[in-house]
Amino acid sequence: MATWHGAMDHRGFHQGSFNSFQSSSSDEDLMDIPGTAMDFSMRDDVPPLDGEIEENRSYNGGGIGSSNRIMDFLEEPIPGVGTYDDFNTIDWVREKSRDRDRHREITNKSKESTWALIHSVSDAFSGWLLMLLIGLLSGSLAGLIDISAHWMTDLKEGICTSGIWFNHEHCCWNSNHVTFENRDKCPEWNSWSQLIISTNEGAFAYIVNYFMYVLWALLFAFLAVSLVKVFAPYACGSGIPEIKTILSGFIIRGYLGKWTLMIKTITLVLAVSSGLSLGKEGPLVHVACCCGNILCHCFNKYRKNEAKRREVLSAAAAAGVSVAFGAPIGGVLFSLEEVSYYFPLKTLWRSFFAALVAAFTLRSINPFGNSRLVLFYVEFHTPWHLFELVPFIMLGIFGGLWGALFIRTNIAWCRKRKTTQLGKYPVVEVLVVTAITAILAFPNEYTRVSTSELISELFNDCGLLDSSKLCDYKNRFNTSKAGELPDRPAGEGVYSAMWQLALTLILKIVITIFTFGMKIPSGLFIPSMAVGAIAGRLLGVGMEQLAYYHHDWAIFNSWCSQGADCITPGLYAMVGAAACLGGVTRMTVSLVVIMFELTGGLEYIVPLMAAAMTSKWVADALGREGIYDAHIRLNGYPFLEAKEEFAHKTLAMDVMKPRRNDPLLTVLTQDSMTVEDVETIISETTYSGFPVVVSRESQRLVGFVLRRDLIISIENARKKQDGVVSTSIIYFTEHSPPVPPYTPPTLKLRNILDLSPFTVTDLTPMEIVVDIFRKLGLRQCLVTHNGRLLGIITKKDVLKHIAQMANQDPDSILFN
């Protein structure tokens, strides 16, 4: 995935300004990222948590020395306080504390009246209702995407005259003039050459079909990239790196909004139909999370609490994988293993329910007409032998090598796209890659079909009635057992298919590197599985022929007699697909379960486990990051990886700000600063929060206050009550400080003060600090010495320090 980054060129976002409390402020500096093409002003699709904030209201402090209305902040909650700016990290501890307080209040009130009891029950049930709605909506959208993509893919080759809405397969199903051997040929289905020049024979007809294939591919790709660029820049890529970052507590307004959902659904169909080397499985996770985020706005419990919303998004991610692969259990494990940052037991149950409902909904729609949830469901009947673990492990090694190669080359290409003129021309890039893909794909029947259909054919276990070239064996009717075919010598069709598959493998390996990361929806699961499935099928056919011609060898004679069905090439394809997908994503448990659910065979778990673990070991030896983590680092997202160990012997004082020779830490005092003093600090700094101390001399810590809360509170005071002026004293204590007579009213802001900020001493080892940030999801941690405030460590400081210790560029961490 690649997202347009750059200077935040939206309203209220500029250096040295607090003109909007929607402006993005970091714990250090505002972002200044050159070369953007993304429009961050489209944020109406996901408003801030408290929708009462007026979108365009700006804050100018009311003018120094002016006298406006004010309010007492102890009497009523202030709209907007407790929410977050765009591109900032949430405070997990505060959010969980707020939810506990809310739940405690509802529980106490439920004992007072029947209505309060009903409200308590409905609050408890709302989570399950939300999961039901997410599952229904995700399953419905997945069915719509599957049906539309299948029809539009076939549209590149021809059209059904009996009903334009039928794809090729359904068109011939309804025909009365079709035979079983030629079930894909029927008079109702006309190729473009038949429609244009009334014949399907000859060189000119081939050229017409070739031209129309490329033309439709370019049209679909152009529509996809244009819609993304104009309406929803966030709809590009797979979305999984951003989902992981959002689930870790980062705010990206609009990324899971209604515009993104609408455009991603439409453009995903177009991108898949264009024939590019991409899949819809990764983007379906993004689509499901968009559904979850939008539906959260129907429930106050989730709308007003960012931590609770992320529990819902974890369950939505599980539903997305459930409908992508028809694997509900695999979806839950994928959410747990790959994308979720915080995954309590309650979320596990709800994820399971959401995945169940989503899979049931998709099964009810039956988009492929085979009563299955995926196009490439297969069943194998021949057991595997212990010796076959050797080729399975070889496939695992290939998968690990391919994964490491792909990640390095794709990241290098994406970095080139971000840092050169190439990134300024996303439409041209997409059209060029589409044209190259379509021109090279059409002559080869295995690249001309959709990647899902290719995988389905590669997984297939050849039967008597199969007419595929991959099943063109000699003596095909010489069966040893009913319903079982022995290993047979390969015919001309098999050898021809092997050459075509080898060319397909080379094309898929190369073209996927340039396709993933373009400004269109693009998943990586299907292309990775296709690479592995082709390699696996090639190896499987080789092993099958070796066993047939040399069944008397020592490695075969103990378990493979002549005329027996010893080797299943389709199983090798499946193991290869798992190995390559594992090498790219570094998934293990969830990958094996997804592949097992695809095949319905428990006995093949051991080969899948062997290949998945081997591919992970090999890929990890060549590079520690999976593709999604690599894209997170490339985009500079503040994601603190929980799987990595921090083994360096540094202390908190080595990382905290300010450093030696730096300006002193900016602090507020608890009862001696005026409104004008605070406004000056806000206008001259870009920090997202300020420590509050007893006095500048003592530096004894009182608490921590967020910049956003300060801005909103002061603006509300100026608007709603007369008396507060620039010389009014702001105090954070329980009681008002003594003031001389005839002074302006004081302003009490204790309610927005965090009285229990996390603190560590200056000699705390950084490995403990990193663990605290990971496990508690902190935004910042204050550093003290004998109770006196020394400095502050933000999440960004931790990420920069980890990058520095790994000899990486610390300035690559772009966001708060």
TrEMBL record:
<keyword id="KW-1003">Cell membrane</keyword>
<feature type="domain" description="CBS">
    <location>
        <begin position="752"/>
        <end position="812"/>
    </location>
</feature>
<keyword id="KW-1133">Transmembrane helix</keyword>
<feature type="transmembrane region" description="Helical">
    <location>
        <begin position="524"/>
        <end position="543"/>
    </location>
</feature>
<keyword id="KW-0813">Transport</keyword>
<keyword id="KW-0547">Nucleotide-binding</keyword>
<feature type="transmembrane region" description="Helical">
    <location>
        <begin position="210"/>
        <end position="235"/>
    </location>
</feature>
<dbReference type="Pfam" id="PF00571">
    <property type="entry name" value="CBS"/>
</dbReference>
<dbReference type="InterPro" id="IPR014743">
    <property type="entry name" value="Cl-channel_core"/>
</dbReference>
<feature type="transmembrane region" description="Helical">
    <location>
        <begin position="571"/>
        <end position="596"/>
    </location>
</feature>
<keyword id="KW-0129">CBS domain</keyword>
<dbReference type="GO" id="GO:0010008">
    <property type="term" value="C:endosome membrane"/>
</dbReference>
<dbReference type="GO" id="GO:0006897">
    <property type="term" value="P:endocytosis"/>
</dbReference>
<dbReference type="GO" id="GO:0042802">
    <property type="term" value="F:identical protein binding"/>
</dbReference>
<dbReference type="GO" id="GO:0045177">
    <property type="term" value="C:apical part of cell"/>
</dbReference>
<keyword id="KW-0472">Membrane</keyword>
<dbReference type="InterPro" id="IPR000644">
    <property type="entry name" value="CBS_dom"/>
</dbReference>
<keyword id="KW-0832">Ubl conjugation</keyword>
<dbReference type="GO" id="GO:0008021">
    <property type="term" value="C:synaptic vesicle"/>
</dbReference>
<dbReference type="GO" id="GO:0005829">
    <property type="term" value="C:cytosol"/>
</dbReference>
<dbReference type="GO" id="GO:0005524">
    <property type="term" value="F:ATP binding"/>
</dbReference>
<keyword id="KW-0677">Repeat</keyword>
<keyword id="KW-0050">Antiport</keyword>
<dbReference type="InterPro" id="IPR002247">
    <property type="entry name" value="Cl_channel-5"/>
</dbReference>
<protein>
    <recommendedName>
        <fullName>Chloride channel protein</fullName>
    </recommendedName>
</protein>
<keyword id="KW-0868">Chloride</keyword>
<feature type="transmembrane region" description="Helical">
    <location>
        <begin position="497"/>
        <end position="517"/>
    </location>
</feature>
<keyword id="KW-0967">Endosome</keyword>
<comment type="function">
    <text>Proton-coupled chloride transporter. Functions as antiport system and exchanges chloride ions against protons. Important for normal acidification of the endosome lumen. May play an important role in renal tubular function. The CLC channel family contains both chloride channels and proton-coupled anion transporters that exchange chloride or another anion for protons. The absence of conserved gating glutamate residues is typical for family members that function as channels.</text>
</comment>
<dbReference type="GO" id="GO:0005247">
    <property type="term" value="F:voltage-gated chloride channel activity"/>
</dbReference>
<feature type="domain" description="CBS">
    <location>
        <begin position="656"/>
        <end position="720"/>
    </location>
</feature>
<dbReference type="GO" id="GO:0003014">
    <property type="term" value="P:renal system process"/>
</dbReference>
<keyword id="KW-0067">ATP-binding</keyword>
<keyword id="KW-0812">Transmembrane</keyword>
<dbReference type="GO" id="GO:0005886">
    <property type="term" value="C:plasma membrane"/>
</dbReference>
<feature type="transmembrane region" description="Helical">
    <location>
        <begin position="125"/>
        <end position="145"/>
    </location>
</feature>
<feature type="transmembrane region" description="Helical">
    <location>
        <begin position="386"/>
        <end position="407"/>
    </location>
</feature>
<feature type="transmembrane region" description="Helical">
    <location>
        <begin position="427"/>
        <end position="444"/>
    </location>
</feature>
<keyword id="KW-0333">Golgi apparatus</keyword>
<comment type="subunit">
    <text>Interacts with NEDD4 and NEDD4L.</text>
</comment>
<comment type="similarity">
    <text>Belongs to the chloride channel (TC 2.A.49) family. ClC-5/CLCN5 subfamily.</text>
</comment>
<dbReference type="InterPro" id="IPR046342">
    <property type="entry name" value="CBS_dom_sf"/>
</dbReference>
